[in-house]
Amino acid sequence: MESDKKHILVIDDDTRLRALLQRFLRENGFYASTAKNAEEARKFLNIYRFDLLIADIMMPEESGLAFLERLRRENSSVPVIMLTAMGEVQDRIAGLECGADDYLPKPFEPKELVLRIRNILKRTPKEKAAVSEQLNLGLCFYNMQTKELVSKQGEIIHITPVEQSLLNVLGAKSGQIFTREKLAELLGAGQSPRSIDVQITRLRKKIERDSKNPRYLQTVRGKGYMLLPE
Question: CATH for 7-123?
Fold first, then answer.
């Protein structure tokens, strides 16, 4: 497992550009996820810990600048590179004033983008992550970057994408209680409070020594669920 591999989120309403950047970033040794707008980006940020964001300024409904302003108001220090077709000095200044770490006008050379990413990541101080990338769940480990559940004997334990998302949401804020309704909202894709109960039950069978008396994935009566890794 490559724990040093950086995870980047690309936020752009241009489907073709998102796909091109995702492929190029992966070819250059990064994990890369994409979001088509600010709303989708926030859902990803609730689930995963990203090392850097790339956001387009000109997006419908909510601009990249508005997204960045809200991100900084929430005290997020994740580095952000702004992309835009606008190349005027005042536009660059506006992006930097909102808290952007760098600014790249379109069209751009992908290799230059990668160089800028590497330079930002080099100068970004290594913070003690609020969450560990690897969760110790007793009989197994879960890696929040690779989304793999592995037994202590080194065997991969199959989990579904929904189960992966559940572990990422709960693991990102270990010890915090999430209501069934909040989990359904964060996971999306047609989830409901009832389906969350079903997913929790299935997941416990994979990570708990005794699924009927869970040690790690706990129920808080009348409130919801929380994850307590070792």
Answer: 3.40.50.2300
